[in-house]
Amino acid sequence: MKRFTRIADVANLDALLSEAMDYAANPWRSADLGRRRTLGLVFLNPSLRTRMSTQKAAQLLGMDTIVLNAGADAWTIETRDGVVMDGAAGEHMREAAGVMGRYCDILGLRTFPGLVDRDYDYAETVLEQFVTYSGVPVISLESATRHPLQSFADLITIMQHRPVVRPKVVLTWAAHPKALPQAVPNSFVEWMKGAPVDLVVTHPEGYELADEFVSGVHVTHNQDEALDGAHFVYAKNWSSYADYGRITNSDPSWQITEAKMALTNNGKFMHCLPVRRNVIVSDAVLDSPRSIVLDEAANRVVSAQTVLAEMLKALA
Ligand code: SN0
């Protein structure tokens, strides 16, 4: 595996999932695979789970890790070509990524969308430049439009908890005070499409995700109808794609409460975290045995370890 930025980078999802289940059962089974290899983790935006779980995953494989909080500690990076760099940016991505590729065998990058220029964000300019100029295998640690390590962990979690072979999985929007990226829902849909699940997406009018993700997916504006008989309820806020980056609805009735969960088929509650209590989901649901958010977060180590192992095997 040379890059892990979207589901299309995965040649065989069943095989990857099976590797993941083996790492979940025995985290130390490849303790020497990454010996004398260096992983560089570059954060242009905040992170808790991604940073700790990916570092832990590298440790389990015997790798060394260098973490750079580029947003705070490094030069502001220019991505446009041919510009006179007499402004705020002190370094171009060509050199920044090129240098990191000389220090590291594998690199990870976190880069959120600006949520201002939709074409720029959806072209994945920053991530694609990083891949090109670093010259080494790259893992997305959440990019402008996707969060594949999260989606892979979500899939592992669903497979571990599914009460039936083909569970009903509902992705539901919920209101949030800040304008958030579409990366998590885009990615979740992209991964669930290839999984043995019946997926339903529900959100208010105006929150349609990009066609490239939701074409062929069952989408409804009726949350109650979507939740009926669900085995998994995956809640997430995102800002509008059509009215790009805007909050056009703040209806609190989309919050996942006990009453909403009562519509499901003994459904489990999922969220990628960080989650705002009593905004996205009520305390009662999050603190109940229905919530599997901590298992989901724990599986971030498994998804990162599985992907790193595939990349290390390809380096050898
Ligand atoms: C990010 C997002 O993409 O929605 C990261 C999720 C893994 N979430 C947030 O930025 C939430 C911030 C907040 O203030 O609630």
Number of helices: 13
Structural class: alpha/beta
Total E-strand runs:
12
Helix content: 25-40%
**CATH architecture annotation name of the largest domain:** 3-Layer(aba) Sandwich
**Which regions have little confidence, pLDDT < 50, spanning 5+ residues?**
none
Structure notes:
The chain is of the alpha/beta class and 316 residues long. The protein folds into two domains: 3-146 and 297-315, Aspartate/ornithine carbamoyltransferase (Rossmann fold, 3-Layer(aba) Sandwich), CATH 3.40.50; 151-296, Aspartate/ornithine carbamoyltransferase (Rossmann fold). Helices cover 38% and strands 14% of the residues. It is built from 13 helices and twelve strands. The protein has helices at residues 13-25, 49-60, 70-73, 93-103, 118-122, 125-134, 148-161, 183-192, 211-214, 223-227, 258-261, 283-286, 293-315; strands spanning 3-4, 38-43, 64-68, 77-78, 91-92, 106-110, 138-140, 168-172, 198-202, 218-220, 232-235, 268-270. The chain has a five-stranded parallel beta sheet with strand order 1-7-6-2-3, sandwiched between helices. Helix 4 (93-103) crosses helix 6 (125-134). The model has no long low-confidence stretch (mean pLDDT 97). Bound molecules: N-(3-carboxypropanoyl)-L-norvaline. The site of N-(3-carboxypropanoyl)-L-norvaline (SN0) has 9 residues, from helix 8. Residues 142, 178, 180-181, 183-184, 272, 274, 276 line the site of N-(3-carboxypropanoyl)-L-norvaline.
